[in-house]
């Protein structure tokens, strides 16, 4: 970047998080600027790691700000310039906030955390340095032979690898992310995003409408998800039977659900309520709505609610029963499966119209070495997740016309309730309870209300920026908030494409009439839940929606919130559940795999993750992904090995 661009960037950082005079500033929170915590250096480092095209675009944005007199403008004038840019500047503004409130200093803490009421990561006892798995590290171009090669190691791929390895099959697992074990986790938000999340953390869809959160690493999303275990509903099972998966609606599928439930040690005995959950329960009781304690895949003997509060950043206690722990470790240590992490599969090999293996590119984490990895195998299981599995098939030229279509995201709206007390949201499991009062609405395309993990960086970056003073005041009150989400079972869908370089892009516009109606009703229900629980202030994460305060007209606030556009520049929308982009079904025109999970057009290639869902699950999908993968593994064993 040029010196002029760097100067504008630093001014931009301190416009978003300015220094302000305030009578209550014993800890320096109000006077502390973004550059005082090194946010500008973090932004520069992030930009330096971006592709050249993105760097050029950001440089152009900074040049445009400079051309408008940003360098000599007052704080108010700079805020007006940002407001005029609207969504164009939003990603950079969000990055500044993420770093200002999430980035630790050399002591492992951020100076803003004391005002936010966050004590920082729980103290961690010494952990064994030995890792259960030793991934294969190629020494130059490598060829392997196997009975099965599994692409991806998350909820579906990890289970299938474990199941098939236990039958005696020679299994090779290729994972694009990196292997992390308990010894690696520090419960630091930004480090966790970089180490264990796809593309380094929360990233928007290509159309900027929804922020995606997906795991990346050995064990996939099961290593960093929030352990909310929900069985596939009868309604969804019946609907999938209409797509040709007839056994899913019978006791035959119960066998898979029960097995996964047992293997993951699912329990409701480690679901203590923090103050956000207590507020949810209080509000639900006042309104007469259904409320349930969550079941979680967790080892009761290792449970500590303080540690559980940071499980989205990697669980170092060993309590989380992830795919990595339950299926992959035994596959390697007991059944001689091989694992290569840091290996991006470029394409699937075929011979005479059927699977013959895969070719991928391995790279050392420090970038000092790389190699081509070829695995010859008659069975290929694609389980790279609903955002990346379509990319593998599209780069390979197989799968048919439905590849990448029917992407479901469970789009989530978010509201915050101000309870005028320290809610200590960092304590206890992030999702220990839920309200399912409206799940069956609209013929089963309703919504759940759940809570979220406490974060400082993502929380700050999700709070729409208006002025530096207003945002700083919102963060000064941050400890008093409880967050509820409205998780919609989407009826409509998006798609996944690949660009000229073969990288995937997700596109999703929330326009389906049922989904719009459900999303707006979810916002209203969240607001009413906060109000019934005693919140003295309520805000919706969305642009142009002033917060409600006690004594104001609640119905008018609900009306304003219901009018916020459900897209970029309007409501802040999230997705932690990606499904359906390579779905199973009887019709090759509208599905990628047959009713067993094998590609319609390429025998030997199987879909083994959430992309196989015929429709969205309407529940946190881990248990459903794993039960469906267990069913697929059974079909592979019976017909192909």
UniProtKB/TrEMBL annotation:
Belongs to the GMC oxidoreductase family. The lineage of its organism: Bacteria, Bacillati, Actinomycetota, Actinomycetes, Micromonosporales. SUPFAM superfamilies: FAD/NAD(P)-binding domain. PROSITE patterns: GMC_OXRED_2 (PS00624). Residues 385-399 form the Glucose-methanol-choline oxidoreductase N-terminal domain. InterPro entries: FAD/NAD-bd_sf, GMC_OxRdtase_N, GMC_OxRtase_C. The chain crosses the membrane at residues 81-103. Keywords: FAD, Flavoprotein, Membrane, Oxidoreductase, Transmembrane, Transmembrane helix. GO terms for molecular function: flavin adenine dinucleotide binding; long-chain-alcohol oxidase activity. One of its GO terms (cellular component) is membrane. Gene3D superfamilies: FAD/NAD(P)-binding domain. This is GMC oxidoreductase. It holds the Pfam family GMC_oxred_N.
